[in-house]
Amino acid sequence: MRRITKQDYFKTFKNQTYVNQLEKIERRFEARNNEETNTTELTIYGVIGNSYWQDSISASDVDEALKNATGDILIYLNSPGGDAADGVTIYNRLVDYKKKHNSKVTVRVDGWACSAASLFPFAADEVVMGLGSMLMIHEASSFTWGTKRDMRKEADLLEQLEEGIIDIYMTKANVSREEIRNMVDNETWFSAQKAIDIGFATSSANAATGNKDDEITQLKAQMISMQSELHQLKNKSKNEDPKPAATAGTRFFF
Question: What pTM was estimated for this model as a whole?
């Protein structure tokens, strides 16, 4: 298989409107312990992945940072996505940290939370969408060479991967699984308010201003969150701790 470039990855996006902006996101990964608030602040800017792109941020990078973390976790996020396996791993690593340390995780979407990076907010107790920020979900994809049998096998693997990722989305979505699946298939972009409306986020940066409109937005978000919890109770088929795994030797991009 030939080397996968970031340009190859961005070509998988159905909506090419924002690709030029997404390509310009520079890698920035920082971990800082704030002793005053007993919070570890992580900045995750750039492509998610490992071996293919040296300027990316891998699950191993985040894992190492969490080993040295203390207290609650605050993540500043701006990413076009990348490798689905790393995205799923980071999600599960954050969930595991919360359980072990009884801590709170907050994600602030400063710009973009696309593709594999859209998974991180689902590990958070609070997701704050910055003004003008967006979240995007879409189909998993891979670059495969081989026979028709190889192609069918790869398609089956991608479907299994997507079902696991939809499990993650369903932990907060207040709509049906079929609606989420359609959104994934069609590549759906969410503004801050739309992310709040569907249950993917809890508030927007407007909440900091304290005006009446923002108070209404916060109350609406709380109501949506309650509706989501009721929806999850009715959804008995939901997997509480989804950990979809990619087949060894196959690179998935999401």
Answer: 0.79
